[in-house]
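Q: You know discrete backbone vocabularies at least as well as I do. I have my own habits and do not want them to colour yours. No explanation is needed for now; the record alone will do.
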Amino acid sequence: MTISAYGSGAYRAATPNRLVSTRNELTDLERQLSTQQRAESYGDLGMDRRVSLDLNEKVSTLDAWLEGITRGNVNLNIASKAVENYAKLTSETVNDTRSNTYIPSSTGRSAPQVLAEEKFKQTLDLLNTQVNGRYLFSGKTSDVQPTATYAEMIDGDGAGRAGLRQMIDERRQADLGVGGLGRLTTGGAGATATIADANPVHSYGFKLAGATSSSAALTPTYTAGPPADLTVTVASLPAVGDTLRVKLALPDGTEEEIVLTARAPGTTGNAADSFEIGTDVNTTAANLRASITAAIGKEAATTLSAASSQVAARNFFAGSTNSPPLRVPGPPYDTATAAPAPGTAANTVIWYKGDDGSDPARSTSSIQVDKGQIVGTGARANEEAFRIGLAQFAVMAVETFPANDANSQPRYEAMIARVSDRLAFGNGAQKPAEIITELGSAQTSLARAKERHESTKNYLTGALADVETVSKEEVAVQILALQTQLQASYETTSILSKLTLTNYL
């Protein structure tokens, strides 16, 4: 009898190798069931490793962009809210500075002025906002607080650096001049009255801008210059109610008009707005000369004074580290003729301490949200919209209007008229709404990029799962099959191990 080579001995020889292989396969499947990962390394993925590496790289890039978008959104939301609050403060101040709000007080400051000081401080807090140690309104220098303190800005640092209050005083002296007539010279003789600009020409005080008369009895002759001059000839006795109008240009870009009205002989009135008709043209001209001087003096003490504050505040808040504020050369200041020149960091408070480059504010901080897309998210505290508001808050906070000064009310009215006008952000000035819109546009770009990346990531993650992960259900079925196979092998091996030739026969 011949025993086949495929008998029990051969089976027993082959079985151990097959059993080891099956057990290894079962162990791997149990790992897959536990981890849901197809392989322990990229190498174990075989041909799919290149696909896995590529997909993982793409997902990592998307994750980096999404992380930047998340941080950017936080900063943009906070910055936008800060600008919105600032816009609200300016709007409230416009309402506060409506006309006829002057009420004399022992402090020389009205309620709107006190509120303006608080709004100034609130604005500084908004502009000094920081997130995770990064200042949002400092441009590229996000580690530097963008503004000086309120006290420093207003009153200087106590170490020789002038603040806004001192700069206003210097500018006011320069504009008023020695005689308090805004650098104009008044005079005339006989039947004439004259007004002349300062000679040599400079940038301080009033500038004559023209004159008109309602009557041939008052004949103005205006020469534009520079320097400009005006001669008014009393050709005949004017009628009661005849007027002379003189236009004055102020250093803040505004114009005022002096209106002098002829009043009846023997009557009294305010010399700053009327003149008495005399017995002849020479007497009338003398009265007109006195009225011109009084009117110019009043305008100098009120509207020109208000204009001086505006110019000084504008110069102060235009200053930065690379471009210190313009100041009147002096002392003395009331006789200054040289143009305002930059101060220095040693003698003038530099209110803005952040980055003051010439590049757009939004570009000072950016986020790459896609391969070819960078979104600007930066901001600077010295953007025009902020400078305007700070200047107006500061002017209101600094000025005082003593109850015993007859010029306090008209000067106050001149101040709030200018504050209201500037806070309207007209004449092409940057508006807070423009900054809000730009930041909102950046937020929209981030939101769209986020939506796009999340959609792409979901797709790539699904594709990656197909390559790297396994189905628990499928693996469980495979494990059961292998377990059944192993059990059968074990039983077969056990039976065969008990076979003998005697049993076989």
In short: The longest helix spans residues 49-96. The chain has a mean pLDDT of 87. Residues 1-36+470-505 form one domain.
